[in-house]
Specification:
heterodimer, A: alpha/beta, two-stranded antiparallel sheet, 11 strands, 13% strand, disordered N terminus, B: mainly alpha
């Protein structure tokens, strides 16, 4: 067994261009061939709709009986639109976290996402992301992949980061590419991006991804396509080991029951597509699904919910010690709500991410406390999230 | 100053503040690059071209949409009541699917006509700074067709609420935006009811705070201005009653803004320390008026303008000057833009920004003097680069940083598109150096000119020119 808290590589500040923080190294012998995917649920998923706390007497008062839930335990259920996640839970390959939040306590999506992705304790000073800073400095090739046209904040600042979305047309000949690469000689950003894209194209072809595929225009097709691609990339022998996938559409101010049913089904099918395309590598995978904050405990005037605080999150994958709900449940009575309206957060999402990075990707505690999640020494990594 | 200096400045004027030079445009700008921009600010608001004569007003588009949606709802109710089985029989009679299909079929031509008009206007414009302002403000006040009901009105919103005001007052634009059905739909205000309103007391219903929050956070004072959750809630209460006529009770003006006093939360409201008496619709209007003139709004808007035109992290002095001009002129956007164009920081020859996909595609079409714009190809091209027209990912709009647009996939897709365009335009190309000079002027340095002169074909030269850092950046 490799030790969990090795510090490999110097923690001396290595101020690479534009980086606010020194970078960390992974253990030379990472546990097996661990894969990690982060699914960013943009727009604030309503945790109480995804994971109804049907056993809490006050839940019914806010939300009604949640009678067609999938059962998790005596207190919590799962929205019926999440059957694959429920199946994973039953096989101990998924766990549910509730009443979690980043340190952010206001209600702006955009600041909230900045905190979720930057790993800082506030949105001030955001410039790169916790997963980008968690990437090994000393590895060659593409280590991490953003599925989509752009690299989201959470992955910025790391070496070996690429992005990929379908609809490449494959019309480029090497000669033209070489000439354009030469034009980019003095432009560090463009040359780095192009090199990463070419590297990615190679892996995509080897992984059998159809570069000529049709435009994935609908939100469902797009997310399933990106999750499929993520699975193939992560499964490839020399492919990336980290993937980030975005899915928006959670900002349900309005008539949310039907919208969430559709949206959660997309998420659930996408998670299954990721698992299926990972194949055997699913056993070495952990997938964190998290959102910027939760929503109000009560339904608003238009059958939806407004911006809130405490949220639900999920951890899935063959490497996860699943089959349980982790929640220090604060209750939903009026006196228990945060600012008399929201689920009160009792678990710091950084503790979850730190536990996964430490036990799954072998990052050292000191790196996690200072570099990946700056000034977070007081937030202990959560133990036991990953199978021993 | 040396002549080359003017050539670089002219290229900066057309790229940084315009949409890339059309053939001959650099020559026009070269005498007096700043004056060329100032002259664009001298006229009236820019008019959108409507080549096909097929643009629909926002309210008309919405009225049609409401009609279809009502039909769909009626069918769903019949089905639930067990009366829909005859319809659901297999074979040709599947009216529910037909209606769903017809909503898409209804929206699509409206959407494509808007894309065609917007793109053609930008490609042909002789005042491209004004088109850039239209795009900037329409992104500041984002509505997105990603929400189905907004899709038929997203283009109309830009034409009706943004375009007429880009050289007018910020406060007038703000009022037009919040009174526009597209924004009311997009940020969920149409059914936000006051709990103590006449209807609220009788039939229930309540608040939806989405519009109130984003007006503060995104559109006016900005997230750091110190407002509280209470300000958000109170502002949302003041906005109750601001809705759209769905046509059920009032047959005229369907799809238009409609103030409904019966759902307005009564009483005075205090927002950011000021108290507003209940004057019905006028209450939220008064709040908007004060927000438009708030110093925090001036700073927020100034920062965004400087970030868009100057650099991701613009010099503080530049932001200060824009904010001051905004306050001194009561938010006169003609004056604020003139100040922007006169900032020395805005003329730094270093190309700090990356063109957005929309700017990139339109500037290529301008530079190559593309005879016509096929909207379906524009949509597919921009979609592949991550910027499908009128489909911003959130109320915060499209990102406006280099990092957001210079990612690996984005850079690759632009090269691919450049190669495809090169294959079309290349064979007709006589001299690559002439094209480079007419598109980039003083920015086409020796290195680029030498590389282009060695290209193996006209197609390759065009692909290289469009992919070059000098053309990708601004």
């Amino acid at each position: 067994m490799p030790t969990r808290r090795q510090i490999l590589g110097s923690m001396a500040a290595l101020p690479l261009m534009g980086l606010a923080f020194p970078q960390v190294s992974w253990a030379t012998r990472a546990r097996g061939d661990a894969r990690f995917a982060f699914v960013v649920l943009r727009g604030a998923l309503d945790g109480l709709a995804a994971v109804p706390a049907y056993g809490d007497g006050d839940f019914v008062r806010h939300r009604g009986p949640a009678s067609d839930r999938l059962t998790l335990d005596d207190t919590f259920g799962l929205n019926p639109a999440l059957p694959h996640l429920h199946e994973m839970y039953g096989k101990h390959e998924a766990l549910v976290l509730h009443a979690v939040a980043t340190p952010y306590r206001q209600r702006s999506h955009f600041s909230g996402q900045d905190v979720l992705e930057s790993g800082l304790s506030s949105e001030i000073g955001t410039r790169d992301g916790w997963l980008g800073r968690a990437l090994p400095r000393n590895a060659a090739g593409v280590r991490a992949m953003a599925l989509g046209e752009a690299v989201p904040l959470v992955l910025r600042g790391g070496p070996g980061v690429s992005s990929w979305a379908p609809m490449r047309e494959n019309v480029l000949d090497d000669d033209t590419l070489h000439r354009i690469e030469a034009l980019y000689g003095d432009d560090q950003l463009l040359s780095r991006s192009l090199a990463a894209a070419l590297n990615t194209g190679q892996i995509a072809r080897e992984g059998g991804l159809d570069e000529n595929g049709p435009a994935l225009s609908g939100p469902r097709e797009r997310f399933l396509g990106l999750m499929t691609a993520a699975g193939r990339f992560l499964a490839a022998p020399d492919g990336p080991r980290i993937a980030v996938i975005d899915i928006g559409g959670w900002d349900t101010h309005n008539q949310q029951a039907g919208r969430l049913k559709r949206q959660l089904a997309i998420l659930d099918d996408g998670l299954a597509a990721l698992r299926d395309n990972l194949g055997a590598a699913w056993g070495q995978t952990a997938v964190l699904l998290a959102t910027e904050f939760g929503r109000t405990a009560a339904i608003n005037g238009t059958g939806g919910t407004d911006h809130g605080t405490g949220a639900a999150a999920f951890l899935a994958g063959g490497a996860v010690a699943g089959g349980r709900v982790i929640a220090d449940w604060p209750g939903l009575a009026d006196g228990q709500l945060f600012e008399a309206r929201d689920l009160r957060p009792t678990t710091d999402l950084r503790a979850v991410a730190k536990g996964v990075l430490r036990d799954h990707l072998n990052l050292a505690r000191a790196d996690l406390d200072r570099t990946v999640f700056p000034d977070s020494a007081a937030v202990r990594p959560m133990d036991g999230l990953i199978r021993g | 100053m040396a002549v080359t200096d003017k050539n670089v400045q002219a290229a900066l004027a057309t790229n940084r503040f315009g949409l890339g030079a059309r053939p001959g445009e650099l020559r026009e700008a070269a005498d007096d690059p700043r004056g060329w921009l100032a002259a664009q600010l001298g006229g009236g608001p820019p008019i959108a071209l409507d080549g096909a004569g097929s643009l629909t007003s926002g309210s008309e588009a919405l009225a049609g949409f409401f009609k279809l949606r009502a039909l769909r709802q009626a069918m769903r109710q019949e089905e639930q009541a067990g009366m829909g089985r005859a319809y659901a029989a297999p074979g040709d009679g599947k009216p529910k699917d037909d209606v769903v299909a017809s909503i898409a079929g209804y929206t699509r031509p409206i959407y494509l006509a808007e894309v065609a008009a917007r793109t053609t206007t930008a490609v042909r414009s002789t005042a491209p700074l004004l088109e850039r302002l239209v795009w900037f403000w329409s992104n500041h006040f984002t509505v997105s067709a990603a929400k189905v009901a907004v899709a038929p009105v997203a283009g109309a919103f830009e034409r009706e609420a943004i375009r007429p005001h880009v050289l007018g007052r910020f406060g007038d634009m703000l009022q037009a935006v919040v009174h526009h059905p597209a924004m009311i739909l997009y940020l969920d205000n149409a059914r936000s009811f006051g709990a103590d309103s006449r209807r609220g007391r009788r039939a229930g219903g309540g608040l939806n705070e989405n519009l109130g929050r984003e007006l503060l956070e995104l559109h006016t004072v900005g997230v750091d201005a110190g407002y509280t959750q209470r300000d958000v809630t109170t502002f949302a209460q003041a906005l109750t009653g601001w809705t759209i006529n769905p046509g059920r009770r009032k047959p005229t003006g369907v799809g238009e803004f409609w103030y409904v006093g019966a759902v307005h939360e009564p009483g005075s409201k205090t927002v950011m320390g000021r108290t507003y008496p209940d004057t019905g619709e006028g209450q939220a209007e008064a709040i908007l008026r004060d927000l438009a003139g708030h110093p925090a709004t001036a700073r927020h808007v100034a920062g965004k303008l400087a970030r868009h035109f100057v650099a991701d992290d613009p010099p503080a002095g530049a932001v200060d000057r824009l904010a001051r001009r905004f306050l001194d002129t009561g938010g006169d956007l003609r004056e604020v833009t003139a100040e922007l164009v006169s900032l020395d920081a805005a003329w730094d020859p270093a190309l700090r920004k990356m063109k957005s996909p929309n700017e990139f595609v339109v500037s290529a079409l301008r530079g190559l003097d593309a005879p016509q714009v096929e909207p379906r190809i524009v949509v597919a091209s921009l979609d592949s680069m991550g910027q499908r027209p009128f489909f911003a990912p959130s109320p915060a709009g499209w990102p406006d940083t280099v990092a957001a647009w210079a990612g690996p996939d984005g850079v690759y897709k632009r090269i691919e598109w450049s190669v495809a365009v090169g294959e079309k335009a290349g064979p007709k190309l006589h001299r690559a150096d002439g094209l480079a000079r007419s598109m980039l002027g003083g920015l086409a340095d020796d290195g680029l000119m030498t590389a282009l002169s060695r290209a193996e074909s006209g197609a390759q030269a065009v692909a290289m020119l469009l992919s070059s850092p000098q053309f990708q950046r601004r």
